Amino acid sequence: MTLNIPDAPLRRTMSVWIAAVTSVAIAAAVIAATPTRANAAATPVNLGTAATYGVLGGATVTNTGPTVVNGLNVGVSPGPAIVGFAASDGGPGIVTPPGALHTTDDHAGQAKEDLTAAYNQAGGQTQTDAVYNAPTSSVARR
């Protein structure tokens, strides 16, 4: 004996569509309500004379490839040398004006002090306004 129920396939199709639309709506609501970005209000750090440097090191600065530092200084302090930027040592590096090489001079020394002060200032900032909400899974693990 066979039952003839003409509305059964239509009801099944409608149930699947309603479930799919409901699932998408719930997923969209969960994504919209879950912030996952960290937001922190940091105070800008003044680099002082260190802002004029593209490369600033404390020991020897060594360049090994075709590097171009556009308009910024290359310096080292208290280290002894910059290698790979001067034509005299056959280096491939180029420093374009107004940038210049500063090896253990007063300019590089002051920039190194300014960079250290900026690093300490940045490291000492508190992140009181930082907010991070880890995303949570809506699927239960079994």
UniProtKB/TrEMBL annotation:
Signal peptide as annotated in the record: 1-40
Family to which the UniProt record says this protein belongs: Belongs to the ice-binding protein family.
Alphabetical list of InterPro entries matching this protein: Ice-bd_prot
Domain of life, per lineage: Bacteria
The entry's keywords: Signal
Name of this protein: Secreted protein
Pfam families for this protein: Ice_binding
Lineage: Bacteria, Bacillati, Actinomycetota, Actinomycetes, Kitasatosporales
